[in-house]
Amino acid sequence: MNKTILSAGVFFGFTAVIFGAFGAHGLENLVDAKAIASYKTGTQYQMYHALLLLVLGVLPKLTEKHKKQIFYVLVIGIFLFSFSIYILSIDTILGFNAKSIALATPIGGLFLIIGWFLLGYRIFKHFN
């Protein structure tokens, strides 16, 4: 499981850099400043959670079961939060109104919060 978690952390970090570069250089003439700012938020949160996955993958005292639980919650959160922001930010380029997925963003944020809570709970429980 640690290899899977670490691989996911690397993947999300790698793609956050690519998406960030695209947002900074490829979107400037295509969408408004508000959309670019939202897109940047998506890349920042994706990177924060990529780094968190790397930390999770190397924590020695957490059980595989607990790591797996936290991993799935964070991955769902990353996809729902960051990727919905990406789509919402570029919906004019995509040619459709993506507002129907707007609820995915706060749900994804909730999953990220739950992931942090579970990690904190497990750390405090196992490191006493």
Describe it.
By secondary structure, the protein is mainly alpha-helical. The chain has one domain (2-126). The chain has five helices and no strands. It has helices spanning 2-26, 33-58, 64-89, 91-94, 104-126. The chain starts with a helix and ends with a helix. The relative contact order is 0.15.
**Total domain units:** 1
Secondary structure tally: strands: 0
The chain-level structural class is mainly alpha
Task: Give the averaged pLDDT, no decimals.
Answer: 92
Topology as a string of helices (H) and strands (E): HHHHH
| Backbone CA Rg | 16 Å
Query: What does the overall shape look like?
Result: elongated
Secondary structure layout:
Elements: H1 2-26, H2 33-58, H3 64-89, H4 91-94, H5 104-126
Helix pairs in contact: 1-2, 2-3, 3-5
GO cellular component, one term: plasma membrane
Main location: membrane
Family: Belongs to the UPF0382 family.
Features:
128 residues; mainly alpha; elongated; membrane; transmembrane; transmembrane helix; DUF423 domain-containing protein; DUF423
What is the compact description of this entry?
The protein has 128 residues and is mostly helical. It has helices at 2-26, 33-58, 64-89, 91-94, 104-126.
